[in-house]
């Protein structure tokens, strides 16, 4: 088994397994410890240098109070989407004045502790 196949096996059951997209709000990223942000930035630079070029996306929060959806068949929620629109502002998008701790049970001290416990040797 190759290293890549072993890593893929390790990711089975993780957030990355069968996930088409992983969206991280900027607010969540900037509230993480600086060391974590630096590691993420380093990984993103490596992806860029390796030629990873992905398209741009428009992201809407997938909850009825934040996004309006109109299906081709209004009586069938499984029918293809005809239209999607923003219903109201998402507080996770307020990265200039927001705080992840205001929106979830985020604890910067716990994040820093976990990060230091998992630092590479």
Could you describe the 3D structure shown?
This protein is extended. The protein is built from five helices and two strands, in the order H-H-H-E-E-H-H. The relative contact order is 0.14. The model has no long low-confidence stretch (mean pLDDT 84). It starts with a helix and ends with a helix. The chain has a domain at 3-33 and 54-106. The longest helix has 16 residues, at 34-49. It has a two-stranded antiparallel sheet. It has 121 residues and is α+β, with helices and mostly antiparallel strands. The protein has helices at residues 3-11, 26-30, 34-49, 100-103, 108-117; strands at 67-71, 81-86.
Short note summarizing the structure:
The protein has 121 residues and is an alpha+beta fold. It is 36% helix and 9% strand.
Q: How are the SSEs placed, and which strands pair?
A:
Blueprint: H1 3-11, H2 26-30, H3 34-49, E1 67-71, E2 81-86, H4 100-103, H5 108-117
Antiparallel strand pairs: 1-2
- Based on CA atoms alone, the radius of gyration comes out at 18 Å
Q: What structural class results from the helix and strand content?
A: alpha+beta
Question: pLDDT under 50 segments (min length 5)?
Answer: none
3D shape: extended
**What is the strand arrangement across the widest sheet?**
1-2
Kindly report how far apart the N and C termini lie: 25 Å
How large a portion of the residues is in β-strands, by DSSP E?
5-15%
Order of helices and strands: HHHEEHH
């Amino acid at each position: 088994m190759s290293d890549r196949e072993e890593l893929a096996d390790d990711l089975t059951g993780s957030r990355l397994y069968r996930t088409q997209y992983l969206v991280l709000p900027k607010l969540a990223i900037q509230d993480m410890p600086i060391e974590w942000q630096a590691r993420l930035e380093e990984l993103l630079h490596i992806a860029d240098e390796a030629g990873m070029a992905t398209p741009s996306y428009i992201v809407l929060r997938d909850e009825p109070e934040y996004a309006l959806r109109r299906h081709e068949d209004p009586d069938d929620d499984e029918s293809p989407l005809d239209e999607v629109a923003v219903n109201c502002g998402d507080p996770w998008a307020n990265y200039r004045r927001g705080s992840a701790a205001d929106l979830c049970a985020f604890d910067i001290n716990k994040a820093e502790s976990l990060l230091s416990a998992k630092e590479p040797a």
